[in-house]
Protein backbone atom coordinates (compact mmCIF):
# COMPACT_ATOMS: atom_id res chain seq x y z
CA UNK A 1 0.00 0.00 0.00
CA UNK A 2 3.08 2.23 0.23
CA UNK A 3 3.80 2.01 -3.47
CA UNK A 4 4.25 5.47 -4.96
CA UNK A 5 4.05 7.08 -1.51
CA UNK A 6 7.12 9.08 -0.50
CA UNK A 7 6.09 9.59 3.12
CA UNK A 8 7.60 6.37 4.56
CA UNK A 9 11.03 7.17 3.10
CA UNK A 10 10.68 10.82 4.14
CA UNK A 11 9.80 9.91 7.72
CA UNK A 12 12.62 7.37 7.90
CA UNK A 13 15.24 9.85 6.66
CA UNK A 14 13.86 12.63 8.85
CA UNK A 15 13.97 10.32 11.87
CA UNK A 16 17.59 9.41 11.17
CA UNK A 17 18.56 13.07 10.82
CA UNK A 18 16.74 14.08 14.02
CA UNK A 19 18.25 11.19 15.95
CA UNK A 20 21.73 12.00 14.65
CA UNK A 21 21.31 15.65 15.65
CA UNK A 22 20.04 14.65 19.10
CA UNK A 23 23.04 12.39 19.70
CA UNK A 24 25.50 14.99 18.41
CA UNK A 25 23.97 17.77 20.49
CA UNK A 26 24.07 15.59 23.62
CA UNK A 27 27.81 15.07 23.08
CA UNK A 28 28.68 18.76 22.76
CA UNK A 29 28.61 21.98 24.75
CA UNK A 30 28.53 25.63 23.70
CA UNK A 31 32.29 25.85 24.21
CA UNK A 32 32.83 23.21 21.50
CA UNK A 33 31.08 25.42 18.96
CA UNK A 34 32.84 28.59 20.07
CA UNK A 35 36.22 26.86 19.72
CA UNK A 36 35.39 25.94 16.11
CA UNK A 37 35.14 29.63 15.22
CA UNK A 38 38.81 30.10 16.21
CA UNK A 39 40.08 26.74 14.93
CA UNK A 40 42.32 27.57 11.96
CA UNK A 41 42.32 23.95 10.74
CA UNK A 42 38.52 23.83 10.78
CA UNK A 43 38.23 27.13 8.91
CA UNK A 44 40.69 25.99 6.25
CA UNK A 45 38.85 22.69 5.91
CA UNK A 46 35.54 24.52 5.49
CA UNK A 47 37.10 26.80 2.88
CA UNK A 48 38.53 23.98 0.75
CA UNK A 49 35.34 21.94 1.14
CA UNK A 50 33.20 24.84 -0.06
CA UNK A 51 35.55 25.33 -3.02
CA UNK A 52 35.30 21.68 -4.05
CA UNK A 53 31.56 21.41 -3.37
CA UNK A 54 30.65 24.63 -5.20
CA UNK A 55 32.93 23.85 -8.16
CA UNK A 56 31.59 20.31 -8.47
CA UNK A 57 27.99 21.48 -8.11
CA UNK A 58 28.14 24.34 -10.63
CA UNK A 59 29.99 22.29 -13.27
CA UNK A 60 27.80 19.21 -12.76
CA UNK A 61 24.59 21.21 -13.07
CA UNK A 62 25.80 23.11 -16.14
CA UNK A 63 27.00 20.02 -18.01
CA UNK A 64 24.06 17.88 -16.90
CA UNK A 65 21.53 20.54 -17.93
CA UNK A 66 23.15 21.04 -21.33
CA UNK A 67 23.14 17.28 -21.97
CA UNK A 68 19.52 16.99 -20.81
CA UNK A 69 18.52 19.78 -23.18
CA UNK A 70 20.35 18.07 -26.06
CA UNK A 71 18.87 14.61 -25.46
CA UNK A 72 15.36 15.80 -24.53
CA UNK A 73 14.17 15.24 -28.10
CA UNK A 74 16.56 12.41 -28.89
CA UNK A 75 17.07 8.86 -27.72
CA UNK A 76 20.04 6.68 -28.43
CA UNK A 77 22.93 4.63 -27.21
CA UNK A 78 24.84 7.70 -26.00
CA UNK A 79 22.08 8.51 -23.54
CA UNK A 80 22.28 4.98 -22.14
CA UNK A 81 26.05 5.29 -21.72
CA UNK A 82 25.49 8.21 -19.39
CA UNK A 83 23.78 5.83 -16.98
CA UNK A 84 26.89 3.68 -16.51
CA UNK A 85 28.58 5.94 -13.88
CA UNK A 86 25.45 5.66 -11.74
CA UNK A 87 26.18 1.98 -11.17
CA UNK A 88 29.71 2.68 -9.92
CA UNK A 89 29.96 3.72 -6.26
CA UNK A 90 31.90 6.84 -5.36
CA UNK A 91 34.60 4.69 -3.82
CA UNK A 92 35.01 2.86 -7.13
CA UNK A 93 35.12 6.17 -9.02
CA UNK A 94 37.89 7.35 -6.70
CA UNK A 95 39.92 4.20 -7.44
CA UNK A 96 39.41 4.82 -11.16
CA UNK A 97 40.85 8.30 -10.67
CA UNK A 98 43.90 6.84 -8.94
CA UNK A 99 44.30 4.35 -11.77
CA UNK A 100 44.00 6.79 -14.65
CA UNK A 101 45.14 10.12 -13.18
CA UNK A 102 48.16 9.06 -11.14
CA UNK A 103 50.63 9.92 -13.90
CA UNK A 104 49.22 13.40 -14.49
CA UNK A 105 50.97 15.86 -12.16
CA UNK A 106 48.44 18.68 -12.64
CA UNK A 107 45.27 16.70 -11.99
CA UNK A 108 46.61 13.53 -10.39
CA UNK A 109 45.50 12.36 -6.95
CA UNK A 110 46.75 14.27 -3.89
CA UNK A 111 47.41 17.48 -5.82
CA UNK A 112 46.86 20.81 -4.07
CA UNK A 113 44.18 22.12 -6.45
CA UNK A 114 41.87 19.12 -5.79
CA UNK A 115 41.09 18.75 -9.49
CA UNK A 116 41.06 14.96 -9.23
CA UNK A 117 38.31 15.17 -6.60
CA UNK A 118 36.29 17.61 -8.71
CA UNK A 119 36.68 15.46 -11.84
CA UNK A 120 35.59 12.37 -9.89
CA UNK A 121 32.48 14.15 -8.69
CA UNK A 122 31.78 15.37 -12.23
CA UNK A 123 32.01 11.78 -13.48
CA UNK A 124 29.44 10.73 -10.87
CA UNK A 125 27.15 13.75 -10.57
CA UNK A 126 26.75 14.83 -14.21
CA UNK A 127 24.74 11.65 -15.01
CA UNK A 128 22.68 12.20 -11.85
CA UNK A 129 21.82 15.79 -12.87
CA UNK A 130 21.18 14.64 -16.46
CA UNK A 131 18.61 12.02 -15.48
CA UNK A 132 17.15 14.31 -12.81
CA UNK A 133 16.44 17.06 -15.34
CA UNK A 134 15.70 14.99 -18.45
CA UNK A 135 12.00 14.37 -17.60
CA UNK A 136 11.58 18.10 -16.92
CA UNK A 137 13.04 19.02 -20.30
CA UNK A 138 10.81 16.48 -22.05
CA UNK A 139 7.70 17.99 -20.47
CA UNK A 140 8.53 21.51 -21.64
CA UNK A 141 6.20 23.03 -24.19
CA UNK A 142 8.43 24.47 -26.91
CA UNK A 143 5.58 26.56 -28.24
CA UNK A 144 6.42 29.14 -25.56
CA UNK A 145 9.75 29.83 -27.26
CA UNK A 146 8.06 29.97 -30.66
CA UNK A 147 5.57 32.48 -29.28
CA UNK A 148 8.42 34.56 -27.88
CA UNK A 149 10.06 34.55 -31.30
CA UNK A 150 6.83 35.77 -32.88
CA UNK A 151 6.63 38.54 -30.29
CA UNK A 152 10.18 39.63 -31.05
CA UNK A 153 11.67 38.80 -27.66
CA UNK A 154 15.43 38.56 -27.29
CA UNK A 155 17.07 35.14 -27.17
CA UNK A 156 17.64 35.34 -23.41
CA UNK A 157 14.05 36.38 -22.73
CA UNK A 158 12.76 33.59 -24.97
CA UNK A 159 14.85 31.11 -23.01
CA UNK A 160 13.68 32.47 -19.66
CA UNK A 161 9.96 32.50 -20.49
CA UNK A 162 10.08 29.26 -22.48
CA UNK A 163 12.34 27.15 -20.28
CA UNK A 164 13.95 29.05 -17.42
CA UNK A 165 10.86 29.55 -15.26
CA UNK A 166 10.08 25.83 -15.42
CA UNK A 167 13.67 24.69 -14.87
CA UNK A 168 14.62 27.03 -12.02
CA UNK A 169 13.44 24.96 -9.07
CA UNK A 170 14.41 21.50 -10.49
CA UNK A 171 17.89 22.88 -11.18
CA UNK A 172 18.12 24.27 -7.66
CA UNK A 173 16.93 20.93 -6.27
CA UNK A 174 19.59 19.03 -8.19
CA UNK A 175 22.23 21.58 -7.16
CA UNK A 176 21.29 21.28 -3.49
CA UNK A 177 21.49 17.48 -3.56
CA UNK A 178 24.91 17.52 -5.22
CA UNK A 179 26.22 20.29 -2.96
CA UNK A 180 25.00 18.64 0.25
CA UNK A 181 26.57 15.33 -0.72
CA UNK A 182 29.94 16.67 -1.85
CA UNK A 183 30.33 19.09 1.06
CA UNK A 184 30.41 16.42 3.77
CA UNK A 185 31.53 13.40 1.73
CA UNK A 186 34.31 11.20 3.01
CA UNK A 187 35.31 8.42 0.57
CA UNK A 188 36.57 10.43 -2.41
CA UNK A 189 38.44 13.12 -0.39
CA UNK A 190 39.96 10.44 1.85
CA UNK A 191 41.43 8.62 -1.16
CA UNK A 192 42.30 11.55 -3.41
CA UNK A 193 42.70 14.52 -1.07
CA UNK A 194 45.85 16.01 0.39
CA UNK A 195 46.87 15.56 4.01
CA UNK A 196 46.47 19.29 4.69
CA UNK A 197 44.11 21.03 4.52
CA UNK A 198 41.70 18.10 4.69
CA UNK A 199 38.15 18.39 3.48
CA UNK A 200 35.68 18.76 6.30
CA UNK A 201 34.29 15.21 6.11
CA UNK A 202 37.77 13.72 6.44
CA UNK A 203 38.72 16.17 9.18
CA UNK A 204 35.62 15.33 11.25
CA UNK A 205 36.16 11.59 10.78
CA UNK A 206 39.79 11.87 11.87
CA UNK A 207 38.80 13.82 14.97
CA UNK A 208 36.34 11.11 15.91
CA UNK A 209 38.61 8.12 15.26
CA UNK A 210 42.09 9.32 16.21
CA UNK A 211 41.81 7.91 19.74
CA UNK A 212 41.85 11.20 21.64
CA UNK A 213 38.45 11.31 23.35
CA UNK A 214 38.83 15.04 24.00
CA UNK A 215 38.66 15.65 20.22
CA UNK A 216 35.41 13.78 19.66
CA UNK A 217 33.10 16.63 20.76
CA UNK A 218 34.63 18.79 18.02
CA UNK A 219 33.68 16.13 15.45
CA UNK A 220 30.09 16.10 16.74
CA UNK A 221 30.01 19.91 16.72
CA UNK A 222 31.15 19.97 13.08
CA UNK A 223 28.38 17.54 12.11
CA UNK A 224 25.79 19.68 13.90
CA UNK A 225 26.97 22.91 12.26
CA UNK A 226 26.94 21.42 8.76
CA UNK A 227 23.64 19.58 9.19
CA UNK A 228 21.85 22.62 10.60
CA UNK A 229 23.30 24.85 7.85
CA UNK A 230 22.07 22.48 5.14
CA UNK A 231 18.64 22.23 6.79
CA UNK A 232 18.39 26.03 6.84
CA UNK A 233 19.19 26.17 3.14
CA UNK A 234 16.67 23.41 2.44
CA UNK A 235 13.93 25.15 4.44
CA UNK A 236 14.69 28.41 2.62
CA UNK A 237 14.26 26.64 -0.73
CA UNK A 238 10.98 25.01 0.22
CA UNK A 239 9.57 28.04 2.05
CA UNK A 240 10.51 30.87 -0.30
CA UNK A 241 12.10 29.71 -3.56
CA UNK A 242 9.61 27.03 -4.56
CA UNK A 243 6.48 29.19 -4.11
CA UNK A 244 8.23 31.99 -5.99
CA UNK A 245 9.10 29.75 -8.96
CA UNK A 246 5.54 28.41 -9.03
CA UNK A 247 4.16 31.96 -9.17
CA UNK A 248 6.63 32.89 -11.89
CA UNK A 249 5.78 29.82 -13.98
CA UNK A 250 2.08 30.73 -13.73
CA UNK A 251 2.75 34.35 -14.63
CA UNK A 252 1.71 35.70 -11.24
CA UNK A 253 5.05 36.90 -9.88
CA UNK A 254 5.11 40.50 -8.74
Structural description of this entry:
With 254 residues, the chain is mainly alpha-helical. It has helices at 7-26, 30-37, 40-71, 77-81, 90-101, 115-139, 143-150, 155-183, 187-192, 200-209, 216-249. Helix 7 (143-150) packs antiparallel against helix 8 (155-183). The chain has a single domain, classed as MetI-like (MetI-like fold, Orthogonal Bundle). The model has no long low-confidence stretch (mean pLDDT 82). The chain is 74% helix and 0% strand. 28% of the residues are buried.
Name the features.
cell inner membrane, 254 residues, 74% helix, single chain, globular, transmembrane, MetI-like fold, transport, 11 helices
Compute the number of strand runs: 0
CATH third-tier fold name:
MetI-like fold
* Sheet having the most strands: none
Coarse morphology = globular
CATH superfamily placement: MetI-like
Quaternary arrangement of the chains shown? single chain
In short:
74% of the residues lie in helices and 0% in strands. The chain has 254 residues and is mostly helical. It has a single domain, classed as MetI-like (MetI-like fold), CATH 1.10.3720.10.
Write the layout of secondary structure elements.
Elements: H1 7-26, H2 30-37, H3 40-71, H4 77-81, H5 90-101, H6 115-139, H7 143-150, H8 155-183, H9 187-192, H10 200-209, H11 216-249
Helix pairs in contact: 1-11, 2-11, 3-6, 3-8, 5-6, 6-8, 7-8, 8-11, 10-11
